[in-house]
Amino acid sequence: MRHRSVADLMTPGAVAVQPGTAFGEIARLLDEYDISAVPVVDEAGRTLGVVSEADLLRRHIERTPSNTADSLMTSPAVVARPRWSAIRAARVMAEKGVKRLPVVDDEGLLIGVLSRGDLVQLFLRRDRAIQEEILEDVLTRTLGVPPSAVTVEVSDGTVTLSGTLARRSLVVVAVRLCESVDGVVEVVNRLTYETDDRAALRGREPVEPPEPV
Q1: To 10 degrees, the CA torsion angle through 65, 69, 70, 72?
Q2: Residue 130 φ then ψ, to 5°
Q3: Confidence band (pLDDT; 50, 70, 90) for 201?
Q4: Is there a contact between 177 and 189 (Cβ–Cβ < 8 Å)?
Q5: Which residues, in sequence order, are bridge partners of residue 192?
Q6: N or C: which end of the chain has fewer CB within 10 A?
Q7: Biggest alpha carbon distance in the chain?
Q8: Digit-coded pLDDT (tens) for 111-149
Q9: Which residue numbers delimit the CBS domain (predicted)?
Q10: Where are the alpha helices (DSSP H) in the chain?
């Protein structure tokens, strides 16, 4: 299985400003491009910080003398790397409370921007594409389950699994792998199994040696 990365979802060629860009110009850019924040970069293109709508509002409310990007920006910027998984980027957004992440390369150069809207694209995958990935990658290639053993139905991102697998432990693994597929909102598990191998698995757990007498 291949999860889509930040590089797959980001908007390349991001709108950016210089440290000396004035308040009014920043506000105009946010409005013109319908974005909530803009990266601040130096002459080499390295990301120094981010100026958001919240930064502009704070300056307006507090009536501070700050009037250029270098005095308005939040620094250092919370950034993403192109090779990150979309899940990792989403977690960073949630933890830091930001709506957009500048995407930088290994040298810190700005190469794009990832927004919450870009991440939503994960959940707009066609049901057919999700179904094919589960049947071909999860069940057949990863778990070695014959396609005839499991029926996979997908409706608006909700996956319903039905059929019979050889072992109970395989059912648990199948459900977890399906939940990790891009675009899956929920997995409804209607799978049954031929053998309950929980006891056998517990029997493989290491036994503590007896203490010496």
Answers
A1: 50
A2: -65, -45
A3: low
A4: no
A5: 164
A6: C
A7: 81
A8: 999 998 888 877 777 899 899 999 999 999 999 999 889
A9: 10-66, 73-130
A10: 6-9, 23-32, 53-62, 69-72, 86-96, 116-120, 127-133, 168-179, 198-203
